[in-house]
Amino acid sequence: MMTGKDKQGVLIIIGVSVVFLFLFALSYKLKASADNYDPETLCRNDGDYPVLKLLIDKTDPWTGQGRERLAALIRRIKGGLAEHERFSIFVLDENGLYSPSPVFDMCNPGRGDQANSLYENPRLVQQQFEKKFQAPLDSMLDELLRPGVAAETPLLETVVGLRGEEDNARLMLVSDMMQNSESLSLYRKHGTDIINGKVNDLCESPKNYKSVEVYYINRSQLTVSTRQEARNFWDQCFNRMADNLSWEAL
The pTM is what? Predict the structure, then answer.
């Protein structure tokens, strides 16, 4: 028959075993988690993460106020990314016409307020976020805000080219939305058949954008009718590409 001391000893052994098993499981989880991430992009190797693509149109110069608003938008995006969400920034300028490569392409490793307090230290998580994600993004902010120029604005071709196989991607655009290429220029008057043909040819596809968010740069030199025609064209196009569409003045 077990004495009180024997029972106490058994309980201690059980408690120590439980703690040991918890620590072992935790270390295994952390190691497995570390092995499951790309050290360069901080993205999960299994590709199981949401995607946000930001396309910045620098084919025309901006005002100082426009640069300030773009900086505020990027800060807002950075603070609102989901944990593990991939943030890719593309710049449309003379160096990246038609097929720009991402100038920034990383996953949010998680902020301190996104840490799981059961097995993560929020302070250390925040430090990693600031060092590995926030610092590289902030270091390129000046370049992103620097005005650019180009002879044409193949915005539609670029948007189509950015479509990927993922079905959970969000697309954000910062632009005056004035498509201007050899195949289609919204500065020229086109018949309805031509506009509808371009929509059918280039915008028709399975909806693989979760949402499209347009941050519209209003250029005062454009007439009201020109801006409205451009808006009508893009509404038709994006409603075929995405589940949700929104416009916001920048």
Answer: 0.81
